[in-house]
Design goal:
The protein is α/β, with parallel strands linked by helices. Helices cover 41% and strands 14% of the residues. The protein has eleven helices and nine strands. α7 (130-141) links the parallel β3 and β4 (149-153). α1 runs antiparallel to α7 (130-141), α2 (19-33) packs across α4 and α6 packs parallel to α7. The protein is globular. The two termini are 32 Å apart.
Amino acid sequence: MTERYLSLLKKSLLNELYLENEARILGLLMQLLFPRQTTLDEMAREFLNARHGELYARVQEMRRGGGWIQIRTNTADGTSSELVAARNFAFVAHSMIGRARMDNLHDCMNAVLADRIPGDFIETGVWKGGSTIFMRGFLQAHNIHDRKVWVADSFEGLPKPSLPEDENWDLSADVMPYLAVSEEEVRELFERYELLDEQVMFLKGWFKDTLPTADIDKLAVLRLDGDLYESTMDALNALYHKLSPGGFVIVDDYNALPQCEQAITDFRRHHGIQDELVRIDEMSVFWRKR
């Protein structure tokens, strides 16, 4: 029953149970933005049969890798650009990491348990909290009471770039408002899954302010999703020395954002870390600390 519960929890967090509804939302949005000649009966058939349509197949493929369908339009100069506001319609799931990365997190926690690696679990940069909700569900499913899940985020989006490595990568709430999810919303989602309790610890604020003084003794899983060079480096500098031998570092955007990759490369070089970087999917990697 443990694995069945965790399997269902992953499907729920990734919205895999209701992908046809995502396809319906996107289909209606596209009809609104780019009207096409159709009848109400035709629209109703497409709506009811969404699971068998092309849009459903594309949503399903995106969910495997943690991506999303971009809705684009032509600008006045003839180029194509994304309608960024449309992401608010695309981000329906409670986690953006996709099936491969969610399975990787599950595998890492299973290994920690099997090999008796001491320490808590943390994610730095949680969005709606999906990964940390799964971490807490994992502890509950295995009846583990001596580990905590740390939920670290500004809950106000990403900081403005302040380092040269992050130049031209403004992902702050002014530019990417859908990345700014409040602590109240994340807590509400934990409650919705009946997983908010004393083993869930919230760290609200910029990583440079919260992580160095966090009351964390040991970590077994360190999941990094800070996107920026600064955020990634702040998390590593504050937490890596607390990661137990045999523990895991998971880097969500290593292959997606060059500044994130640069932070990992610089940190590993500076500390002489030669543990193998293992690819998870097109975006992410992890390594196990020796």
